[in-house]
Amino acid sequence: MCNDNFDELHFEQLKKIIGWAYDKSLFYRNSFEKAGVKPADFKTVDDIKKFPFLTLAELNREDSMDFLTLPLSNIVRINYVEDSDAGINVANFYTKDDVAKNVEMMTRCLQAAKIYRGSIVGVQGDLSDSKFLDVIYALESLNVTVIPLGNDYRRWIATLENFSMDTLISTPKLAVQLIIQLQAVEKNIADYPIRKIICLNTNNIQNPLQTHIEERTGAAVYNLFAPQEIGTAGIIFQCSNTSGHHVQEDNFFVEIADFASDKIFDDEHMGELVITTLTAQARPLIRYRTRQAVRRMDGVCTCGRKTLRLATPFTKIFNLR
After folding, report:
1. Rounded Cα–Cα distance for residues 173 and 221 (Å)
2. Which one, out of 86, 131, 290, 304, has a CA that is 20 to 30 A from the CA of 163?
3. Cα distance between residue 130 and residue 126, in whole Å
4. Has domain 98-238 been given CATH number 3.40.50.300?
5. Which residues are CB-neighbours of 271 under 8 A, at least 6 positions away?
6. Are 264 and 250 in contact (CB under 8 A)?
7. Containing H/E element for 146?
């Protein structure tokens, strides 16, 4: 979406979050001063380029409390993430409004995947992960029948036998484990009524196991980008017409940077996805380099949404262009 009104909205949101981060967070105050910039230097949307990038290495290295912008008495949820395989060791903090925003974004994602009242949805995953709590709250707000499945494969199988779930929300790894566990007891997941699988992808926008899961289940697979260090699964969601990935632009400002430099691409050049949170209160992220390869997609989407779309190197429409 590119118009003057939207640029003005982004300017106001960016100005507010940059000032908030500088005033309230020890990390950002030190980071901005080291880079020689202050909130007063932000006079146009393009001035975001003056501010330093944030990397995963910094999130891991710095004390999580230094990113916090509010006292703990204002925090309603803390999600500690330690994943040695992915090299992540961070704490995510949420105010009441942060949780409400995350649930609102997740509700949009579910609606885009055509999850409505009457659906019976199994949620496969550890509920100590804040993202799965947001998923359940969003499903319940849609009056969907929700079945928390946890991580125990015996519960997975028993639930499949007793309830006609039509949708599964999972991670690529857990979805494949379900396929394998059913096979171990001589059952085929394709024989069950699951016809839609929403995968929360923690390491990629595009699900690397998608083709395998689709072939084994016969279900349509929808992708949500759910990086553990960011703490929400609502940043980007797959178009309902599989025409790229939509950005929730009222909550995130997106840039695309050269992987090897600070250069920002304003065209359809492939580069690294950089995000700035616009509404996060407890722990804003300013110019976070996600390590994800994307490019902009011009034009109005066939689904009718007018928000910014992104393609990955593996998006089918990208390969056809």
Report:
1. 14
2. 131
3. 9
4. no
5. 256, 257, 258, 259, 265, 293, 294, 295
6. no
7. strand 145-150
Pairwise CA distance, residues 194 & 210, whole Å: 15
Token reading at 152 = 């125990």
Helix (H, G, I), strand (E, B) or coil at 298: coil
Angle separating helix axes 130-141 and 96-112, nearest 10 degrees: 60
Q: Quick one: which of 269, 279, 274, 236 has its CA closest to 255?
A: 274
pLDDT in tens, 126-168: 888 999 999 999 999 999 999 999 999 999 999 999 999 999 9
Domain ranges of the chain: 4-72+247-294, 98-238
- CB burial of residue 8 (10 Å; 0-12, 13-18, 19+): exposed
**What is the rounded distance in angstroms from the CA atom of residue 8 to the CA atom of residue 320?**
34
Q: Report the CATH number of the 4-72+247-294 domain.
A: 3.40.50.12780
